[in-house]
Amino acid sequence: MTGTVNRRRLLYGGAAAALSGTAAVAFSAADSPAASSVKEPATTGHPGVVDVVADFGAKGDGTTDDSQAFADAYAYAVSRLDNHTGRTVIDIPPGRFLITRPGALLDGADPHNAANGLRFRGAGLRISELVFAPATAQDAYLCRNDDMWQNIAFEGLRFTSGTPGASFFLSYSTGGAANYRFTECEWMGEWEYGLALDGSNTNSEMRWEACRVGGAYRKAFLYSGLSKRSQDPAQQDQFLNYWFTDMNVTYEWGNFLEFPYGGSITCRGGSYIVTGRRPEPHPDYGYESAFFRFPRGQHFSSVQRFHAEDIRFELRDPDVVVIDCAWNSGTVHFNDCDDTANAFKSFAPALKAHRYNLGPRGPLVRYDSCQLTGSHRFRTDGSTLLPRVVRYDMCLLASHGPGDGFLAVNSGQDTGFTRFVDCVIPS
After folding, report:
1. What DSSP element (H or E) covers 128?
2. Model confidence at 229, in pLDDT bands (50, 70, 90)?
3. How far apart are CA 64 and CA 45, in angstroms?
4. Residue 181, SS3?
5. CA end-to-end span of the chain, whole Å?
6. Mean pLDDT across the chain
7. Cβ pair 152, 181 in contact under 8 A
8. pLDDT digits over 26-84, tens only?
9. Are 261 and 238 in contact (CB under 8 A)?
10. Separation CA 189–CA 160 (nearest Å)
11. E-assigned strands of 174-297?
């Protein structure tokens, strides 16, 4: 990919120079606020640590619109940029803060003012809550980063959609948006998107640690390739490196991760449960909700990598899918995972919650020390003989044996692409 921005160089320096040639973007916003227009904090503490209540007048009573206070805090953080490096921590104390203005929490709409380092610090999960209730939900995002910010941290915060169908974060990148970190955060309410990624070349290196994903998602909690606004749509495959650690993913319906573009995803530890069912069929998904949906076959190398480890999946409904993967290459690995919590229910043997497209290059699919319910569906390319690209090693197959319905394949398809090693089958 000659002529593109070097993603690694952006992450560790040189962002300002690299961004000087970026294409025009859809957001229309004024330049960063001039120093004279920025509201100064009311207290006399350290200027790099401000409080939306004490310094900018937020009420946090759940009824007062605190949009302006958060917008003032963000504008103050922008005004303190020092050679494109952030120098501000924004504290959000205990309370329930109503925000109606899109972009009030973060409005990174100036890609030429490259910025690196911003921290939003709450008092703790379910102690500091932001309720986003815009007048209309369509294209309304609480946070927007248009090729401007890298290294953004959110800690100890609860985000609630007060307007069904609003969205939490829109991140557009051609090299200037990357490295987000969420620690002990929670999402509730009905959202269109949690985080929607767009553009090309980065939007990468993002991590979630000890967070809870609740609520519901009309599309997905994390979605890559939103509008295909990139100059070169294929470059959207530069979206990579997403880590989820010790998560409580317990939401009502929708998709957790959906990646039409990009990949390289690790989910390690936690409980994953869909508690309900879509209230009406979606044009793309019907009534289904999926934890991991990878719907596109052709990708660049190195972005078709998914790893799930030490996760308990609870399949409460026939319309819940663990993984639906259309990749034509790459690797998928489940290690020490269990989806048998409801294996005793009457619908369990008919479940096909793990689904793959398979061709001559795979993907390579492996399950190690897993406990699995129902059948696994493999959609093949029509070749009766495929290389051995699927392996089950020391797994418990709770509903069917290898030759007794566990492999769901096209009629006449040879199953030699699969190997079972030391697996336990129903007695």
Report:
1. strand 128-132
2. low
3. 26
4. strand
5. 54
6. 89
7. yes
8. 333 444 455 447 898 887 678 899 999 999 999 999 999 999 999 999 999 999 999 99
9. no
10. 5
11. 178-183, 186-199, 206-209, 212-213, 216-224, 240-251, 255-258, 263-274, 289-294
* CA distances (Å), origin 39, targets 44, 75, 110, 119, 247: 14, 8, 19, 19, 38
How many residues are there in the chain?
Answer: 427
**Calpha distance 275→231 (Å, rounded):** 40
Contact by Cβ (8 Å): 411, 385: no
Cβ(120)–Cβ(90) below 8 Å: yes
Determine how β-strand 289-294 pairs with β-strand 354-358: unpaired
Map tokens 């709770």 to a residue. 398
Could you tell me how far CA 78 lies from the centroid of its own chain?
26
Q: Which of 326-330, 364-368, 378-382 has the highest mean pLDDT?
A: 364-368
Global pTM reads 0.90
Distance of CA 405 to the CA centre of its chain: 33
Which two three-digit tokens encode residue 302? 């190195």
Residues 192/166, Cβ–Cβ less than 8 Å: yes
Q: Rounded to whole angstroms, how far apart are CA atoms 416 and 172?
A: 43
